[in-house]
Design a protein that fits this description.
With about 150 residues, this protein is an alpha/beta fold. It has helices spanning about 20-30, 55-60, 75-80; strands at about 1-5, 35-40, 45, 55, 65-70, 90, 95-100, 105, 115-120, 140.
């Protein structure tokens, strides 16, 4: 099962580090995929609630096989959709969102399939026997993956 560090978090939420390129790289170097929040204004930025850390698009391309890119504004969605190999998506509070690589980003406690990525609080406490998640999901996105 794929483990995805939410905004780079691996051992609980560290809001002051989330989405920083060095924090993301650290999680990747530990063997995890990472969900990142991307904005494009005049250039690419990473950050959850606002554009925060300037980041070259080449960073996303370099780690494209490890990143799940949550586009936070329309310009990011339009621009990044045009770059081959990136796994991008947009969602707000949708039950399901399809990523550009065909995975199903799944809101907590919704039905899943073998292409679903579940967003959960703590992946270390994941119990695949509930009615909602079974054993068939593709991956887990969490602030706690270790």
């Amino acid at each position: 099962m794929k483990l995805i560090a939410h905004r780079g978090n691996t051992q609980g939420r560290k809001k002051h580090l989330e989405n920083h390129p060095n924090y993301i790289t650290s999680a990747i170097n530990q063997g995890f995929d990472v969900e990142v929040d991307a904005w494009i204004t005049d250039t690419l930025y990473l950050g959850h609630d606002k554009p925060q850390y300037h980041c070259p698009i080449s960073f996303l391309s370099k780690y494209s096989d490890k990143l799940w890119i949550h586009c936070k504004n329309l310009k990011a969605l339009e621009t990044l959709n045009g770059i081959r190999g990136l796994n991008i998506f947009w969602h707000q509070e949708d039950d399901f969102t399809l990523t550009s690589k065909g995975f199903i980003w799944t809101y907590p406690e919704k039905e899943v399939s073998n292409k679903s990525v579940l967003v959960i609080k703590d992946a270390t406490k994941y119990n695949p026997v509930s009615i909602f998640d079974g054993e068939k999901c593709y991956g887990l996105c969490s602030d706690t993956v270790i």
